[in-house]
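Risk register update: the risk of archive-format incompatibility is retired. Evidence:
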Amino acid sequence: MRFGVLVFAAAAAGVLAAEGGNANQNSLKPLDSHLFHSLNKISPPIVLPDQTRALYTTSRYDPEKNKSFSFLSLLDTVSGESTQLTPEMEGERISSPMWLNENTAGYVFKGALYQHNLQPNINGTLFYNTTVGISSATYRATTGQLFFLADVYSDGNINSVAGYKEKEKNRTDSAQVFDNLWARHWNKWMTPVKANLFSVKVPLAENGGLGQAPREVNLMQGLAPSVDPLLRWEAEGYAVSNDGQHAAYVVRSPSPDLSWSTNVDIYLVPCNGSGQPELLTEAYKGAASNPVFSADGSALAWLQMETPGYESDIRRIFVRNITTGQTHSVARDWDLSPHFMIWSADSSVLYTLVQSRGDSKVVTVNVLTGARAELTGSGYIASIARLGTDRLLAVYTNTTATHDIYTIDVNSVGAPMRRLTQANRDKLHDVYLGEAEDFWFAGARNEQVHGWMVRPHGFNASQKYPLALLIHGGPQQANGHAFSYAQWNPNMYASAGFVTVQINFHGSPGYGQNFTDSIRQQWGGLPYEDLMTGVDHVIATYGFIDAQRLVALGGSFGGYMANWLNANTDRFSALVAHDGEFNLISGYYSTDELWFAEHDIGGVPFTANGRPNYERFNPERLAAKFKTPTLFVHGASDFRLSLEQSLAPWTLLRRRGIPARLVYFENEDHWINHAGNSVRWYSEVLGWISQWTTSPPAPSHG
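Archived output:
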């Protein structure tokens, strides 16, 4: 289910200097909202088979014009030189950069595929289009095959979509009828339209155009018919072998128990549509993800959760021999959970990404023995791609640097990464970005808990400052020391004058699976104890924190925790609850993914055994104890936690005469997705917490 947002990781050893200045902090500007929202964001690079060039996209938002722009760039992986290929395009982002041949790039824009001859600053020309938009596209130049996702109706035919839409337009009523859960998921009501995986032969002709008339093949057509057209098969991801012979796609079985089952499968299918899809994961009822073919196409690896109904189970690595069908699990003694992987050039090693103590590291895994080695240290590796036989092309970030592209030498463990791009150097060279200072303390169960602090802009050790506690969502997610472009970037609060603290409480991944699992039936227990003890620790350790000016903020589970804090302590001057949960019982009946509550809270609330589990840590049960001024934020299309979960506690506080504010976004869901709304979000949130902590800095005695 994943309540909430992921906030990323810290500084890497041996990397080039951060973009934000640190030498003379008093001369640096604070990170203001308009600058923050105008920063450039780059995509993971796509490497040319000759390994000397890569494509990537850059996107940005212009707060003055309230418009977004993006463009495609060519990166020379030897010199590090980047060339902008397209002009900035307004509106929908350029996506799916790909290589059509060694001299021709491709990209998707507004649902169509364009080709580009690699000349600077010119528009591409239309290469392939359908009556429906395409997305998540990739190309195999050796076979001239294009693969993509497209939304189709129950017949799986792209060409019939227009007819279905015309019938919908001519309906005389607007009723939607549901017989099974889901009726809605994340931010959308269920419809008969689902994303299917297609392949089509579109070889590049000598003149640069289309070599033949295309005929699309739906690679999911062989799946069993669904009993409910609203719960049909839908592709959640896919991979294609380098030779274009096989595809593996990720789908959730469309059974009536969708909302309380985490069974996600992987199917293998010939790319020409000549054979039936083969189910690879029948033995497991947990979620499968991240299929990836070996370089020679002889093997397929994927990540598999084995515990039914538990979305934060440890991911095990499985490898299947395509020819023999034999499958084995690798590195089962590993207590960390990889979330991404690719193969080495010789197909003997998997390069995995794994969260570990606030970092995202590259760890090699031998596919035969399971032996592992860490290639990177502190910092957050967001993506990796193979660059020849001995290097990786990685996107890396830390608290003081936005995402950029680096190379990693796979033969030199711990060697410095080489930086190839500096997407925001000009924008951030004179801006304060505080480094994360790590700390550990004895938390719940007397176990060591990890957190970090960012000092405020213009820091003076002789003064005291308010503290902002940022509480992550999930709850089985973790803070990391990365530069987040979303609502929980610690430097935005540090630039507003707050000592900013983040704590990876019990339930956070990256500290062993037992630590992650420990939050089950403990939502208001172990995490609450960790947060309170952690705040005590930083106040006692750092003499520049004003214990009378504390605020706490969180989204999703962090919003739930803000409500739980309101019911259990009065130490905070103000709280912010973004799309949080107030009533665990009504929340169960209105959410989309029932498996989450049934596993984490324990059972169902309509049984004698399950009801006490929901009541135990239910903030609504303690409504009479709410006393702290709170800002509530909610999106209208959040179907994970419906609007009433913010309306209710806001009503409670207002009725009791306690200061409270509700910020409602009618075009948002569980997150803030529109940049203009994010500008307003920060304005409201920073204004609220500043309002309740404003006072001249007090002299420090620590």
